[in-house]
Specification:
seven-stranded mixed beta sheet; Rossmann fold; 13 strands; binds adenosine-5'-triphosphate; alpha/beta; ATP-binding; about 300 residues; nucleotide-binding; single chain; four-stranded antiparallel beta sheet; binds magnesium ion; 9 helices
Length: about 300
């Protein structure tokens, strides 16, 4: 059985109904939504009035239908970037495009419709995505509120979605009585339930057993296979990242490295910033003076004798 989808209806940024073609998945599916970040900076203001720089110049392009895992140490900006891509927060500076449309140019109403139908975000901490006093079935119904009656008939029935994440027995269970892992799987089922063109999931498997983790990964990858959905997950688990053809590693609020088809690459950032691979960083601490010399297709980085 395929996952079902919401057929896009034509629309224009700023008002009305969001809808745009993406890359094809299965024949007839709307396909995925590509994403592009240009010089994205994000600051948080703390209660004490200090600014925290969470992102400091992110340039990133994710093609329609791509599947990407975001990695990186705690505090490196993964959740911030995901929330910006999902239109939940707006960047302090820089530009974010969903398909051909720039998020900062979208009106609130248009953005809300986009988030309700085409772009699903599962935030870090499953309960933030759920109505804890409601049942699993009611949460799925709530996630699909923006769909038309016809669209609702096209997406997967609630029972089937819950079966896919191993929650068939929890259909009428209230979220408040569920375990952390059950909430995590329900939150993902809700995010997937509209058949989105872009699915963003922040640590969707961090609390799961191996078996439940595999259920969740199967659902994520089926969205990509059946609908052409663009899928982006944040994870700290190498075995989860290994199921994604592309990884993006955040470091200090920037894209530090990328993995493609099993090879790791450092990424030259804005103003020529280049992160050292983490296994080298301890031997080359901040402040180390280095000489950089181009040599055909290489850059030779060396530490002069008297500064080592
Ligand atoms: N609401 C907030 N107010 C102030 N600072 C924040 C807020 N949210 C995040 N930050 C700060 O922004 C930076 C990036 O945080 P973010 O949550 O994006 O990191 P992360 O990579 O997702 O980390 P983790 O792996 O722990 O989830 C951190 O320094 C964090 O302390
Ligand atoms: Mg996070």
């Amino acid at each position: 059985m395929s996952l079902g989808y919401v057929a896009p209806s034509g629309g224009r940024a700023g008002d009305g109904d969001p809808g745009a073609p993406g890359a094809p998945g299965a024949p007839g599916a709307p396909g995925g939504l590509g994403v592009r970040c240009e010089g994205v900076v994000h600051l948080y203001r703390t209660f004490e009035g200090h600014d925290v720089v969470a992102l400091q110049g992110v340039d990133l392009e994710i093609d329609a239908g791509e599947r990407v895992a975001f990695l990186g140490p705690s505090g490196s900006g993964k959740s911030t970037l995901l929330a910006l891509l999902g239109g939940i927060q707006r960047p302090s500076a820089g530009r974010i495009f969903l398909g051909d449309e720039e998020v900062s140019r979208m009106g609130e109403r248009y953005l809300a419709r986009l988030r309700a139908r085409r772009v699903s975000t599962m935030l870090q901490g499953a309960s933030r995505n759920l109505l804890t006093y409601a049942t699993a079935r009611q949460n799925l119904g709530f996630a699909r509120l923006a769909l038309s009656a016809r669209e609702r008939r096209e997406v997967l029935p609630e029972e089937e979605l819950l079966r896919m994440v191993g929650l068939a027995q929890q259909l009428d269970q209230v979220v408040a009585t569920m375990s952390g892992g059950q909430r995590q799987r329900l939150a993902l089922a809700c995010a997937a339930s509209t058949g989105p063109q872009l699915l963003l999931a922040d640590e969707p498997t961090s609390q799961l057993s191996h078996e439940d983790r595999d259920h969740v990964l199967t659902l994520l990858h089926r969205l990509g296979d059946d609908l052409g959905t663009t899928v982006v997950v944040v994870t700290h688990q190498p075995e989860v990242a290994a199921t994604f053809p592309r990884t993006v590693t955040m470091k200090g609020g920037r894209v530090g490295a990328e993995g493609r088809d099993g090879s790791e690459y450092a990424v030259v950032g804005a103003e020529g910033v280049l992160h050292l691979p983490s296994h080298l960083a301890a031997e080359w601490p901040a402040g180390t003076l280095v000489r950089i010399e181009p040599e055909e297709r290489r850059l030779v980085v060396s530490r002069p004798e008297d500064h080592s």
